[in-house]
Design a protein that fits this description.
This protein has about 300 residues and is of the alpha/beta class. It is built from eight helices and ten strands. The longest helix is centred in the middle third of the chain and has 17 residues.
């Protein structure tokens, strides 16, 4: 008998209707990416980037790979590297939650931290410097077209099938922008009228998984034309809606997922009879040490 491996459990995540958080005649649907084996939407591109690079002969098991990450991609790549036999070096801001760091280490990755002030820009610069010195090979999620390809091949088709082709709006946080690029490409190929809504943080907000990139660091995989509308999300708004998901819907998720709900609700207040799907990027248990779910926050 040909038994499945852990790789086969990536994707095919549930799309669930919100029962209590509702706006008029609209249907709000949450895509539960925390159900992936390493706990986030990033499992999809992590495996995609490794397998496609292998197929092209760019990397081979035993190689050392280097990637800058703010968290979820690092965990997913650490898992994928363990599955396929690579050494993984991850560079990340020291402000990431302890759960994220420990998860990466559990999969066998080596962590290098930069300061909060250096941020992801500093992490990316360090990764580039190490690769230039020959210390490992790059995947570069920000410029790697196998990142959005994963969502064109899996996430987009799942959303189309799970809604019976009735989806009218897709709402997604934007970090590397791989999710929104790949899903947009697929959904627009099925129905050009579907509205693609991206989320970025307000100035001054620090929301894990959502970025407003300086021009010099904007991911090269991003294509503005694939996004119909961009909404700014506030820090408090994202955190409050994250807690609403848990308290009112039983969905324990991270802050970017709260931002996605907030964005979906903004859209829902403007339309009628819409089917609005948003990405719940990961699980909330990897944020517990941050105090975002502490009793005094309720």
């Amino acid at each position: 008998m040909d038994y499945p491996t852990i790789e086969s459990t990536i994707g095919h995540t549930p799309l669930v209707r919100l029962k209590h958080i509702q706006v008029g005649s609209n249907t709000l649907l949450a895509k539960l990416e925390g159900n992936n084996p390493a706990g986030s939407v990033k499992d999809r591109p992590a495996l995609s980037m490794l397998t496609h690079a292998e197929a092209r002969g760019e990397i081979a098991p035993g190689d050392t790979l280097i990637e800058a990450t703010s968290g979820n991609t690092g965990i997913a790549l650490a898992m994928a590297a363990a599955i396929r036999g690579y050494n993984m070096i991850l560079i990340m801001p020291d402000s990431a939650s302890s759960e994220r760091k420990q998860a990466m280490a559990a999969y066998g990755a080596r962590l290098i931290e930069v300061t909060r002030d250096q941020g992801m820009e500093g992490a990316r610069d360090m990764a580039d410097a190490m690769i230039a010195r020959g210390e490992g090979k790059p995947l570069n999620q920000f410029a790697n077209h196998d990142n959005p390809l994963a969502h064109f091949e899996t996430t987009g088709p799942e959303l189309w099938a799970q809604t019976g082709g009735n989806i009218t709006h897709f709402v997604s946080s934007m970090g590397t922008t791989g999710t929104i690029m790949g899903v947009s490409r697929y959904l627009k190929s099925k129905n050009e009228a579907i509205q693609i809504v991206g989320l970025q943080p307000e100035d001054g907000a620090s929301i894990a998984g959502i970025r407003r990139w300086p021009e010099a660091y904007r991911p090269s995989i991003f294509e503005q034309a694939r996004v119909d509308r961009i909404l700014d999300i506030g820090q408090q708004e994202a955190e409050e809606h994250m807690r609403r998901l848990a308290r009112e819907e039983g969905i324990l998720a991270g802050v970017s997922s709260g931002g996605a709900l907030a964005g979906a609700l903004r859209i829902a207040r403007e339309v009628d009879n819409a089917v609005i799907a948003f990405i719940v990027c990961d699980r909330g248990d990897r944020y517990l040490s941050t105090g975002l779910y502490a009793p005094e926050q309720h």
